[in-house]
Amino acid sequence: MVRDLYSAWPLGVRAKTLVSGTKDAGYNFTMLTNLSKRAAALLWGLTALWLLLFVASMLYHTGGRWALPLDDSFIYFQYARQAAQGHFLEYNTGAEPTAGATSLLYTALLVPGFWLGLDGMGMVLYALVLGAVWLRLSAGLLLVLGRKLGGEFSGWVAALLFLLC
Questions:
Q1: Tens of pLDDT, residues 7-21
Q2: Which of 7, 45, 47, 95 gets the highest tally of CB atoms within 10 A of its CB?
């Protein structure tokens, strides 16, 4: 049944081997780092360009002040600051734990910034760099997955569409 479902898929055999778990399925995680230096440099360049455009737009719209587009970022900063001090999921020290930080992973990724002594706009910069790094890694994964499923062109289309959205 599974094979029939995937054989009707436009990618045919490639999709079937990825899903079925056969030897050709490509579950070798070294393929994730199997980007050429040129492809990796291009993705880093596009990510840096995207970050530059975001920062330029932010500075333009805020009159030259560093800011983030939503207050959610500062809510995460507060939860991460509290977690760095040993008060996980507490918005204020001594308060009951709350579910205000809906992304526990993002909160955990922000904690090292506070351990490094960053605060205020230093944390804003840390969050922007952290976002750029994860944006680049995600684009790289889409490039590899797109190549695996549909070839070189499909990989680049997937990665570029991801970076543009």
A1: 444 444 444 444 444
A2: 47
